[in-house]
Amino acid sequence: VSGAIVGVVGGGQLARMLLEAALALDVGLSFYVRPGEEGISGWSPRVVEGPLELEALRAFARTVDVVTFEHELVHPTVLAALERDGVRLAPPAGAMAVGSDKELQRRLFASLGLAAIPSELVDRGRSERPHISPPYLLKAAHGGYDGRGLVRVDTEKDLPPTGRYLAEPILPIEAEGAVLVARSPSGAIRSWDPIRLVNLEGICVEAAWPSELPEAIERAALRAAIAIAEALDFVGVLAMEFFVVEGGLIVNEIAPRVHNSGHLTIEAAVTSQFENHLRAILDHPLGDTSPLSPAAMVNLLGRIADRTSPSRVRVHRYGKTPRARRKLGHVTALAPTVAEARQHARAAARTLGGELIRELEEVG
Amino acid sequence: VSGAIVGVVGGGQLARMLLEAALALDVGLSFYVRPGEEGISGWSPRVVEGPLELEALRAFARTVDVVTFEHELVHPTVLAALERDGVRLAPPAGAMAVGSDKELQRRLFASLGLAAIPSELVDRGRSERPHISPPYLLKAAHGGYDGRGLVRVDTEKDLPPTGRYLAEPILPIEAEGAVLVARSPSGAIRSWDPIRLVNLEGICVEAAWPSELPEAIERAALRAAIAIAEALDFVGVLAMEFFVVEGGLIVNEIAPRVHNSGHLTIEAAVTSQFENHLRAILDHPLGDTSPLSPAAMVNLLGRIADRTSPSRVRVHRYGKTPRARRKLGHVTALAPTVAEARQHARAAARTLGGELIRELEEVG
Q1: C-alpha to C-alpha distance for B40 and B17, rounded to whole angstroms
Q2: Among candidates A26, A270, A282 on the partner chain, residue whose Cβ is nearest the Cβ of B317
Q3: Is the sign of the CA dihedral B158, B164, B167, B170 positive or negative?
């Protein structure tokens, strides 16, 4: 390893896939993980364990050239303090602050004139109630993922006792999707083709491209993601999730990092999200994001058969202890059509024993 | 990492690519490298440095469940002694002995009724001369690779002063190719489609598939590689290189390991040679070897531009110090036709500054 060392805060499956990309790119990575975090531990000679606190992160930052993130768990004030110290954060602290806060995201979307979900901040710690009538959704303003922090409120009894939430109407969602963009410090941007998503119980279960959405939706989604990346002066890969509601685009939320929806880019794009994230934060020329093939990815949730090697797919195992609904791996299939790719990926996920596959097939 | 640990003797680019595959497969690797060997060092928490000698390898073998090889540099008597100790070698010592000795290979090919290059063993230490008249080729009986150990003899003056060689006529080679097979301890075998090779100065410069060779040649090559793997009771991935001479198949040599000709399987096959090598030696079910797309790989020899990201290819950098004709990386392109894939891969290799690209284009 020669040249700049990238510090990655977080050590789960995204860290593992960043390491795979870093090996081919010959970019050195150093990981900062929480005690007991599973994924990267044992796989790199540079794994530091510690709490997500200023002093510890400061010490880690001194050992690397740039710090990036695999999750949004570091407090924004800690990130801002690191940046004031002169630590180069990519994405910058300001972008991370927005990326980890759904309320700030909604404000940004509004300021950019993007259609977003009408929502209302509710502080249950102060016993606030939304003005909207049930049924509606509460989404944790911070830190919700994979269905955690998501509450459906049908009656007052469903209201959680504490926590800050966004209250949202239950929209008639016709389709879900994601757009990934990579942006360099110099402002260079590359986007991948839009990805079609199926989420169940708030968890991403399937991602596929081409999205088969109307071209106007795809164009609007790409424009929105680029506008958001530019407004945040973003550096690295940014994921934007969207809905199609009544034939129009609704921006749902962003993640300030490589993202589950983009795992299929490992096999199905000339340059993967992981490689371009590293290229972006190092200000190297961004790689070609062209698609190589229609593709589908299905997550392996909750359980995963040992050793089994289903045909027609590439299997990625994350080395994590099984737990209900936990992401333990994924499969990606390439095929001449997205319908075939979906079939292959679902069949493989069934063979490997992943949860929610039957439910996925019911969605169609 | 849970489960069996695979010990890999050797730490160059093949070790790196094995590590990439092991990450996705969640198979733990431990590497045994020679002092100063470049490639895997710095990339794994389990890298042991030492000489390729019995006592040191014995100690390494005690820390792993199975030992495999990235090169053929361990002496066959050392391998046989390890096996007598009860160390599980995959491939087994006998297969490694043949794989590292061109003379034994020729005898095996003859015993299997496979057409091979007529050759004669010449011990220059005893001042032996071949009966063949110049011009002819001398190939080191042991350890030659990437053009090293290859001597063209036009006059007696070209004869090396020492060393054991095979003397061979210079054949009118019409095409070169390779077949890769993966074989499990249980005898299960999977082969990838034959690969077309261009070698220059004895170095593999380009690999591509489909081979565009006559079907009869492809079938004969696949049959030959499978017969060899079975005769050797081989475990792991075996590469067989062949020539087409006067329209017929001539088996050239084998390598008892993952091989440069198979790098395109990373992107262009459902399961790569690296993943199936690990699956085979662990006796897991072998992965699907179907091709995903026509593809071409071009080696980056001698020099490689920093940071540059040419379009239409995936770049693999090996992290090695540049030296004339040294393999520093490779690019792989997928495209609707092999001709386009070749164009893209060659254009990228030119952009990245690899050696022998002009010469490659002259070959056509």
Answers
A1: 9
A2: A26
A3: negative
A193 touches chain B (CB under 8 A): no
**pLDDT per position as a tens digit, B304-330:** 998 889 999 999 999 999 999 999 999
The crossing angle, in degrees rounded to 10, of helices B13-25 and B273-281 is: 70
The long-range contacts involving A358-362, CB below 8 angstroms and separated by at least 24 positions, are: A359/A200, A359/A205, A360/A198, A360/A200, A360/A205, A360/A206, A360/A298
Residues of B in contact with A285 (CB under 8 A): 307-309
Note the pLDDT tens digit of each residue in A30-87: 999 999 999 999 999 999 999 999 999 999 999 999 999 999 999 999 999 999 999 9
Name the CA dihedral angle for B278, B29, B86, B57, rounded to a multiple of 10 degrees: 130
Whole-number Cα distances in Å, B248 to B103, B136, B221, B245: 22, 21, 10, 5
Taking the C-alpha atoms of residue B307 and residue A28, their distance in angstroms, rounded to an integer, is 14
| Contact indicator for A243, A171 with CB cutoff of 8 Å | yes
pTM, to two decimals = 0.95
The phi and psi torsions of B111 (rounded to 5 degrees) equal -65, -25
Q: How far apart are CA A179 and CA A189, in angstroms?
A: 13
Rounded (to 5) percent helix, strand, coil in chain A:
30, 30, 40
Which 8-state DSSP code applies to residue A192?
P
Q: Is A8 helix (H, G, I), strand (E, B) or coil?
A: strand
- The predicted-structure confidence for B98-126, as pLDDT tens digits, reads as follows 999 999 999 999 999 999 998 999 999 89
Interchain contact A308–B (C-beta under 8 A): yes
**What DSSP string describes A92-119?**
-HHHHHHHTBHHHHHHHHHHTT--B---
Residue A196, class by beta-carbon neighbours within 10 Å (0-12 exposed, 13-18 middle, 19+ buried)? Answer: buried
User: B2 falls in which pLDDT band (50, 70, 90)?
Assistant: low
Look at A288 and B279 and tell me if their CB atoms are within 8 Å. no
- Apex CA B21: angle with CA B176 and CA A303, to 5°? 140
For helices B54-61 and B76-84, give the axis angle rounded to 10 degrees. Answer: 40
Cβ of residue A92 closer than 8 Å to a chain B Cβ: no
Average pLDDT over all residues of chain A: 95
Asked if A1 has any chain B CB less than 8 Å from its own CB, the reply is yes
How far apart are alpha carbons B262 and B97 in whole angstroms? 22
Residues A259 and A242: their CA atoms lie apart, in Å, by 14
Residue B339 parent element (H or E): helix B338-352
Would you say how long chain B is, in residues? 364
- List B63's β-bridge partners, or say none: none
Q: Is the peptide bond before B76 cis (omega within 30 degrees of 0)?
A: no
Asked if A360 and A198 count as a contact pair (C-beta separation under 8 A), the reply is yes
Residue A287 with chain B: CB contacts under 8 Å = 309
B232 touches chain A (CB under 8 A): no
Residue B265 reports pLDDT greater than 90: yes
Contact partners, residue B157, CB within 8 Å, separation at least 6: none
pLDDT higher than threshold 90 for residue B350: yes
Residues 6+ apart with CB under 8 A from A320: A12, A13, A38, A39, A326, A327, A328
Q: For residue A340, list chain B residues with Cβ-Cβ distance below 8 A.
A: none
Tell whether A186 is within 8 A of chain B (Cβ): no
Contact A76, A100 (CB under 8 A): yes
Q: Are A220 and A241 in contact (CB under 8 A)?
A: no
Q: Which of A2, A23, A42 sits opposite B43 (nearest CB)?
A: A23
Angstrom CA distances, A254 to A136, B161, B358, stand at 21, 69, 46
Per-residue model confidence as pLDDT tens digits over A279-335? 999 999 999 999 999 999 999 999 999 888 999 999 999 999 999 999 999 999 999
Using DSSP's 3-state secondary structure scheme, residue B238 falls into: strand
Q: Among residues of chain A, what percentage have pLDDT more than 90?
A: 92
